[in-house]
Amino acid sequence: MLDPGRHVLLIFAKAVTTYMHHAAKQGPFRPLTFPDVSKPIPRHFAAFTLAAIGLVLIAGSWQFRRLSTLVTRHEQDTLLSHAVSVARSLSHTHFDTLSFTADDVQQPAYHHLHQKLATASQHLGLRGLFTIAERGGIYVFGPESYPSNHPYATPPGAGYRLPPAEVSLAFSKRLPCVSPLFTDEFGHFITAFVPMLDPNSGKVAFLLAADMNLPVLRRRLMKVSGTSAALTLSIITLLCLLWLLISRRMPLPRAVRYYRQYAETFLCALILLLITGSITLHLHVAENQMRSKTLLTAAQQQTA
To answer: Which of 303, 302, 238, 225 is CA-nearest to residue 273?
Structure first.
């Protein structure tokens, strides 16, 4: 079943195609005759143009929001996939000796895990990686990728005062999850959480968390959503030009009327081309998101 916005785009494309076909029938396939008076404006053409502009605005607004959602989901799925891959690379010998207290600073395993997380975070282009454990109903931080002088750096054993709901969910469900944009005591984040299970008890030993690089997400949103908005505005502009061209039909010299007739056909073809580009953009982003979701599902099945 087609999405509502895509359905509107297809209806509009069909309507423009019908008009273009009608205009082409009066083109070079018939002997050109130029009466002394110009052809009348098609009946209800102004209403048709306003309706077309309204449909483009509705479809463009829907696509803008939809593409923003798809890009965000794609980045969230990619983030979760990266977090799962890092979690799979960790050996239980890395954290068996950790207590998630201030004493961990003296443990070689703490510094080894810090270096490993820092390398993985830089390689994957993440904002950062860190760990969370539950101690007495309080969530505390453990080894992380952030250097000690970073604004987000926390000493081991420090409490997490404003954790998102996904932290509790990952501990209780023992399944990887990713948060929407949230705010805690450090700022704004989108974070993936992967539970690390104790092989002896089967309980969650701690969570490995990965922070998304939000500036990268913003640039990708601007690129995709900006392209969608530009296509929508271009279609509306061409519709207005087509309306202006047809509504101002008047007695003109023969050569001018000849070229004006083909200008209308050219504008219709250009509008159809932009609509095709808009639909192609939507399908491309949706396909990327679906592929990312498939890869993430496969990774989760291997981790389980």
So the answer is: 238
DSSP state of 38: P
| Tokens at 154, concatenated | 């926390």
- From 54, 76, 64, select the one nearest 8 (Cα to Cα): 54
User: 68-102, pLDDT tens digit by residue?
Assistant: 888 998 899 889 989 988 998 887 766 677 889 89
Quote the CA–CA distance of 208 and 114 in Å, as a whole number.
Answer: 12
* pLDDT tens column, 122-175: 999 999 999 999 988 899 999 999 998 999 999 999 999 999 999 999 999 999
Nearest to 111, CA basis, from 128, 94, 124, 91: 94
For residue 183, give the amino acid letter: T
Q: In what order do the strands lie in the sheet with 204-211?
A: 138-144, 128-135, 204-211, 191-197, 177-178
Using the 8-state DSSP alphabet, how is residue 40 labeled? P
Instruction: Provide the token pair at 118.
Output: 């820092």
3-state secondary structure of 188: strand
Instruction: Yes or no: say if 267 and 241 are a contact pair by the CB < 8 Å rule.
Output: yes
C-alpha–C-alpha distance, residues 139 and 154, integer Å: 13
Name the residue type at position 272.
L
Quick check: helix, strand or coil at residue 204? Answer: strand
Helix (H) or strand (E) holding 192: strand 191-197
